């Protein structure tokens, strides 16, 4: 009476590995060189000192740097920019965006989820905490401190 449809997918990239040694040998051979990504291309932009100061300003960081640190940051940023340009040049013809089935999280959902949470004594969640209960001396809802400030 009931029918179930089952589909099995498989794909093949190359010949099947026969042993662990074949896998290790395959992984030893580099197919992608990261140094290639750091070499400049025609459309690479250079980050200069005014751009560096502007980036630091926008990031909320101090723009007054030691002379060596400024050059180091410029080299790092230019290398990152070159790498990003190289990655952008790679064509992705066989790329399919995976469709998502979830709905966006709403404030009311978060409030409902936190209302349903139960306290766990294992985690140290003991309910209401009254810090005045820990005070040895208290008066009218306040701590009483019997110490002097400073040296006399």
UniProtKB/TrEMBL annotation:
It catalyses: L-glutamyl-tRNA(Gln) + L-glutamine + ATP + H2O = L-glutaminyl-tRNA(Gln) + L-glutamate + ADP + phosphate + H(+). It is a peripheral membrane protein. It is an enzyme of class 6 (ligase). One of its GO terms (biological process) is glutaminyl-tRNAGln biosynthesis via transamidation. Its EC number is 6.3.5.-. InterPro entries: GatF. Transmembrane segments: none annotated. It comes from the Eukaryota. GO terms for cellular component: glutamyl-tRNA(Gln) amidotransferase complex; mitochondrial inner membrane. CDD domains: GatF. Subunit of the heterotrimeric GatFAB amidotransferase (AdT) complex, composed of A, B and F subunits. Belongs to the GatF family. This is Glutamyl-tRNA(Gln) amidotransferase subunit F, mitochondrial. It comes from Komagataella pastoris (Yeast). The gene is GTF1.
């Amino acid at each position: 009476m009931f029918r179930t449809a089952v589909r099995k997918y498989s794909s093949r990239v190359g010949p099947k590995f026969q042993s662990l040694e074949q896998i290790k040998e395959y992984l030893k051979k580099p197919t992608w060189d990261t140094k290639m990504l750091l070499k400049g291309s025609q459309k690479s932009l250079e980050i200069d000192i005014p751009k560096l100061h502007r980036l630091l300003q926008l990031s909320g960081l101090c723009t007054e740097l030691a002379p060596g640190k400024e050059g180091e940051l410029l080299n790092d940023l230019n290398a990152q920019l070159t790498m990003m340009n190289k990655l952008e040049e790679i064509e992705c013809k066989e790329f399919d965006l995976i469709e998502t089935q979830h709905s966006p999280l709403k404030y009311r959902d978060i409030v409902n989820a936190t209302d349903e949470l139960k306290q766990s004594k294992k985690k140290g969640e003991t309910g209401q905490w009254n810090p005045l209960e820990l005070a040895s001396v208290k008066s009218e809802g306040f701590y009483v401190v019997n110490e002097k400030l400073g040296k006399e």
